[in-house]
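Hi V.,

Quick status before I head out on leave. The structure for the redesign project is tokenized and pasted below; the design run finished overnight.
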């Protein structure tokens, strides 16, 4: 019987990917030589609230109507087991000046 992890996941991140998947986290992409694992994320809690606020800002009552295009990135840096940075970065396309 073949081992899917052995055949498909690079050795540098194989144990981490297996650990995450065994604990209910769906990994979607990983790269051992670049040192990352991407996971699915269900938009909930504060991130969902932020998305709703941004969506209604762009598409709602704030004239003029703008297509709601933006990116929300959650960043957390952990050093020696402690969170040293935790932030949300919102990126929007350049917007025309208000008239």
């Amino acid at each position: 019987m073949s081992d899917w992890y052995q055949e498909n996941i690079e050795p540098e991140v194989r144990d981490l990917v297996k650990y995450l998947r065994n604990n209910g986290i769906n990994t979607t992409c990983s790269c051992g030589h670049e040192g990352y694992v991407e996971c699915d994320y269900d938009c909930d809690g504060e991130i969902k609230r932020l998305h709703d606020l941004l969506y209604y800002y762009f598409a709602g009552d704030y004239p003029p109507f703008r297509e709601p295009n933006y990116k929300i990135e959650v960043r957390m840096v952990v050093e020696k087991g402690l969170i040293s940075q935790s932030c949300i970065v919102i990126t929007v396309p350049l917007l025309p000046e208000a008239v």
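Above is the designed sequence. The CA atoms of residues 74 and 98 lie 29 Å apart.

G. will cover questions while I'm gone.

Best,
W.
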